[in-house]
Design goal:
Order of helices and strands: EHEHHEHHHHEHEHHHHHH
Helix content: 55-70%
CATH superfamily of the largest domain: HUPs
Number of domains: 2
Bound molecules: adenosine-5'-diphosphate, tryptophan
Strand order of the largest sheet: 1-2-3
Number of helices: 14
Largest sheet: 3 strands, parallel
Shape: elongated
Oligomer: single chain
Strand content: 5-15%
Length: 321
């Protein structure tokens, strides 16, 4: 069963990204069946470009490899290294009614937030449809905000197939319902846009400073403390096994320690949890050519699927003459 995921290169990853999406992706890798690419063309639609985009692309590749994307299992590449996607994007545009794009939430949301309404932002779902349909996945795992994009890909594929026969495979989306929302330092959903993130790969001192900012109840040191609604506890539990969790609950119930102690504990367990990933990342940062080699080999594997697929599409649409 082929699974395909696109990753926006959007900067420093936080623990919400890790527990909400990256960990699932890493755990679900199946040799030969997992496809993951860095959506650098997509990033241009919200204004990223130039040296910044190039850096973000390498940073994202480095971070995902460090966190466990395994190039021996997954086909991992950068979107722009397989140009067929742009050709398919144009062909699919001819099967995309304007109304379909005008109804897309993401365009409406982004322009409402003040991102300028350029054409790439508007036609983003068509490029995403090309990403998907070029590789014929069975499943596209997505967050709730991306469901509509997979539905648009299905609509476009249906229109295309009605004209030219059963060429494009209709993908299914999968939303991971069990994924919990990781709280940020202010208790809202952790998100870059709320500036409440705890990043995975920060400097140790800076991380401690961020963790110290987590909002907690004001309870005197000696008194017992509530843990279920506590932002520190809810972050710490992501890193703990069942026994460690019980021990932490006991510490809350017993009293005698303040939230400051629990914050130090959280900083420690988090630092340990990511130690191995950090070491791997340091290695890749010192050997960026290895990251480039992995991406190049991934692009070759992706091309081996994209090229024959495009041949069929060119033939059917009369682009081959
Ligand atoms: P951000 O909100 O920081 O911009 P993104 O929208 O880039 O994060 O999210 C990338 C992935 O990480 C998505 O799959 C999203 O569902 C997941 N994710 C982001 N924040 C959280 C969170 N607080 N809890 C769980 N998952 C999250
Ligand atoms: N739009 C997706 C996001 O913002 C990224 C993406 C681009 C994608 N192309 C894709 C995801 C194809 C799945 C399949 O997160």
């Amino acid at each position: 069963m082929r699974v395909l995921t696109g990753i926006q290169p959007s900067g420093d990853l936080h623990i919400g990204n890790y527990f909400g999406s990256i960990k699932q992706m890493v755990d679900a890798q199946v040799k030969g069946d997992t496809f993951a690419f860095i959506a650098n063309y997509h990033a241009m639609s919200s204004g990223n470009g130039g040296e910044k985009l190039a850096k973000l692309t390498m940073q994202t590749a480095t971070d995902f490899l460090s966190l466990g994307i395994d190039p021996n299992k997954s086909t991992f590449w950068v979107q722009s290294d397989v140009k067929e996607v742009l050709e398919l994007y144009w062909i699919l545009s001819a099967f995309t009614p304007m109304g379909l794009l005008e109804r897309a939430h993401s365009y409406k949301d982004k322009t409402a937030k003040g991102i300028s309404a350029n054409h790439s932002l508007f036609s983003y779902p068509v490029l995403m449809a090309a990403d998907i349909l070029l590789y014929s996945p069975d499943i596209v795992p997505v967050g709730k905000d991306q469901i509509q994009h997979v539905e648009i890909a299905r609509d476009i594929a249906t229109k295309f197939n009605n004209e030219y026969g059963d060429i494009l495979k209709l993908p299914e989306f999968k939303v991971e319902e069990s994924v919990q929302t990781v709280p940020g330092t202010d208790g809202q959903k952790m998100s870059k846009s709320y500036k409440n993130t705890v990043n995975i790969f920060g400097e140790e001192k800076k991380q401690l400073k961020t963790i110290k900012k987590i909002i907690t109840e004001n309870v005197p040191m000696e008194e017992p403390k509530e843990y279920e609604e506590c932002n520190v506890y809810n972050m710490a539990k992501l890193f703990l096994n069942a026994n460690e969790l019980l021990e932490l609950q006991e510490r809350y119930k017993k009293g005698g320690e303040g939230h400051g102690h629990f914050k130090l504990y959280l900083a420690d367990v988090m630092w340990e949890y990511f130690r191995e990933y950090r070491e791997k990342r340091d290695y890749y940062l010192n050997n960026q050519h290895e990251v480039r080699d992995i991406l190049r080999a991934g692009a070759q594997k992706a091309s081996n699927i994209a090229q024959p697929k495009m041949e069929v599409i060119r033939q059917a649409t009369g682009i081959l003459y």
